[in-house]
């Protein structure tokens, strides 16, 4: 009996073992390991006939048999991104405002970019309607804006003497037809921070100043200039006057500190308005008129406005204001519903171009493209860093470099971001503010504006803080990829708030990276990368961190730890150290960075400018920084104070710096 029982147990064991082996074999046979498949992405840019990006267009992706695979809506920048695509042929269809256009897409062995142009022309942006358009502004030259003829400035103990000719501000314009001003006069008026009166552009006094354009001539498609008599590029300073541009076509000049305007305008030390110490500026304007008679009723043929706020430029009660053109690329005397809005600041006439910090010499390019009949691309401002030392910047920087206004006979102008200027590198640090129910705006409301603010600055490298909401991380990574950026971040080791570093993948290659932790009363983190600049064949070390608010002592510890990170990992490379450090300029923690000697670190930002505004738009403290080491040479830095219909993208303003660095082979 025992033998039978033993045999029975053995049989049962054998059957169980056999069945388990059989199951395992069946599992292996029925579930073979999948071969890896290369996947790719397609970036689709949807634009209207004037090449302006279209937001919220629906883009659908189909296979060649007409089966829909997926769909995406375009972002604020007109981009829809399709990922995880296998090699093959597809069809894209973009739809918006009852207009549809399709394009073929073939994925081979790389990501693809496709542009789809819809047959849409915005009603208020159609015709140029002016033989002259405003294309650039030098509103903040280095030195005194209106230094009068016969006066001097001295530097370096008197070894450098600058002899002034009369005024350094000027306006750049583009002729869209041949004009002989002797026979066909025009005039140009500037409005400088004046609270508008019933006389509008003709107010005079310190508010508006007029130049009559009554002599000289200009050829179609060429630039000409109006402004001060100095005729230099960007002011003056300790190395003398900036580059002489008297060879340009100057149609009207005045020593405006000593001379009256033509018909109205008192002598003034500043023709064009600048940012105040708090970074604010009531909108300043420039207008061009046919003829030389300008009254409160005269309608300009072109006008632009720049600044940070439109408060005070339109008197709603009295219906006073600065008249705008009948129709231009940015303004119209009627809205889409036919409502009259003849003044700037009224109705939809609220577009403000950006402006640089005061006393730095940088130039406002207004961009855009036209064929003299239609606006092919709307004007959109960019700030061009210019040196105030002679010979270091040139007239070509404002007449032929990227971002200038284009005159073309081709009705297709591709919107492009300007390539980095030779030898220059730009970086942004931005605390984007995590999603918090107590804030006036949710992250969902702000996300498109955060993206637009970043993309509009056209920087090479971006470091973000409070990048801590998972859905937003995925969304922004996708949008930044569509705009040409790759990134480094480590979610797992960042206490839920990774310090992401985005970089232009066309320019940089990631060579090394790491995330580090700062464990004090409050856990914080930072990250660093080493990037190879493929344009310059040079490597840089960049670190991005966010320090605690708990105590100055903990921030001092964070500063010392970041310096140790730099010492241990930078390999002697040029250093950029950015972030929200939660410390005031000249506080003990910030002085730790300033006292560093190997390498020596310099603050790129004007410490009088506030970066944290608590959603108010009025700066309260300075806590965001960009530090750099040699051989980086600072060209320009700024605090970007930008809101969208009174909605702030964050409770911080982003900070941006642009550097020169000499090429050196690795």
Automatic annotation (TrEMBL):
Domain Endonuclease/exonuclease/phosphatase as annotated: residue spans: 428-652
PROSITE patterns on file: PROKAR_LIPOPROTEIN (PS51257)
Endpoints of the signal sequence: 1-23
GO MF annotations, alphabetized: 3'-5'-RNA exonuclease activity
Record's keyword terms, sorted: Signal
PANTHER family associated with the record: CARBON CATABOLITE REPRESSOR PROTEIN 4, ENDONUCLEASE_EXONUCLEASE_PHOSPHATASE DOMAIN-CONTAINING PROTEIN
Record's protein name: Endonuclease/exonuclease/phosphatase domain-containing protein
């Amino acid at each position: 009996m025992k033998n039978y029982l033993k045999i029975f147990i053995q049989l049962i064991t054998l059957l169980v073992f056999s069945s388990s082996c059989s199951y395992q074999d069946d599992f292996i046979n029925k579930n073979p390991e999948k071969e890896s498949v290369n996947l790719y992405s397609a970036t689709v840019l949807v634009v209207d006939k004037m090449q302006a990006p279209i937001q919220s267009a629906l883009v659908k992706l189909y296979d060649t048999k007409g089966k829909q695979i997926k769909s995406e809506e375009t972002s604020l920048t007109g981009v829809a991104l399709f990922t995880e695509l296998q090699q093959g042929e597809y069809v894209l269809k973009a739809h918006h405002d009852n207009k549809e256009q399709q394009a073929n897409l073939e994925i081979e062995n790389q990501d693809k970019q496709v542009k789809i142009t819809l047959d849409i022309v915005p009603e208020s942006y159609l015709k140029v309607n002016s033989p002259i358009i405003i294309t650039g502004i030098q509103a903040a030259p280095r030195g005194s804006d209106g230094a009068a003829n016969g006066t001097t400035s001295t530097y370096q103990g008197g070894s450098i003497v600058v002899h002034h000719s009369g005024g350094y501000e000027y306006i750049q314009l583009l002729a869209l037809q041949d004009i002989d001003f002797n026979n066909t006069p025009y005039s140009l008026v500037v409005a400088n921070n004046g609270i508008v009166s019933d006389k509008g552009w003709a107010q005079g006094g310190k508010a508006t100043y007029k130049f009559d354009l009554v002599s000289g001539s200009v050829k179609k498609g060429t630039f000409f200039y109006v402004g001060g008599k100095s005729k230099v590029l960007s002011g003056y300073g300790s190395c003398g006057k900036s580059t002489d541009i008297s060879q340009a076509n100057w149609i009207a000049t005045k020593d405006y500190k000593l001379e009256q305007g033509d018909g109205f305008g008192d002598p003034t030390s500043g023709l064009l308005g600048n940012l105040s110490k708090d970074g604010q500026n009531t909108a300043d304007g420039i207008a061009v008129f046919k003829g030389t008679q300008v009254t409160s009723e005269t309608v300009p043929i072109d006008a632009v406005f720049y600044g940070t706020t439109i408060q005070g430029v339109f008197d709603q009660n009295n219906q006073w204001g600065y008249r705008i053109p009948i129709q231009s690329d940015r303004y119209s005397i009627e809205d889409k519903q036919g409502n009259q809005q003849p003044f700037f600041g009224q109705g939809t006439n609220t577009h403000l171009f950006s402006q640089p910090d005061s006393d730095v010499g940088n130039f406002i390019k207004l961009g855009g493209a036209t064929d003299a009949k239609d606006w092919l691309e709307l004007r959109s401002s960019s700030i061009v860093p210019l040196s105030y030392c002679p010979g270091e910047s040139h007239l070509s920087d404002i007449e032929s470099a990227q971002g200038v206004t284009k005159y073309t006979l081709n009705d297709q102008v591709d919107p492009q971001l300007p390539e980095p200027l030779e030898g220059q590198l730009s970086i942004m640090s931005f605390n984007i503010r995590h999603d918090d129910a107590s804030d006036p705006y949710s992250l969902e409301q702000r996300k498109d504006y955060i993206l637009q603010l970043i993309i509009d600055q056209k920087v090479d490298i971006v470091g973000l803080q409070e990048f801590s909401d998972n859905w937003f991380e995925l969304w922004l990574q996708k949008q930044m990829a569509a705009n040409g950026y790759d990134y480094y971040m480590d979610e797992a080791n960042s206490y839920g708030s990774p310090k992401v570093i985005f970089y232009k993948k066309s320019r940089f290659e990631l060579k090394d990276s790491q995330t580090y932790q700062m464990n004090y009363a409050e856990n914080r983190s930072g990250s660093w990368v080493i990037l190879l600049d493929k344009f310059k064949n040079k490597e840089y070390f960049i670190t991005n961190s966010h320090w605690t608010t708990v105590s100055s002592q903990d921030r001092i510890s964070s500063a010392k730890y970041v310096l140790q990170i730099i010492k241990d990992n930078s390999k002697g490379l040029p250093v950029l150290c950015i972030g929200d450090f939660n410390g005031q300029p000249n506080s003990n923690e910030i002085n730790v960075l300033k006292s560093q000697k190997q390498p020596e670190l310099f603050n790129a930002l004007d410490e009088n400018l506030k970066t944290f505004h608590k959603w108010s738009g009025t700066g309260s403290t300075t806590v965001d920084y960009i530090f750099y080491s040699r051989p980086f040479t600072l060209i320009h830095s700024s605090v970007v104070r930008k809101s969208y219909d009174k909605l702030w993208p964050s409770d911080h303003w982003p900070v941006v710096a642009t550097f020169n660095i000499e090429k050196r082979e690795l």
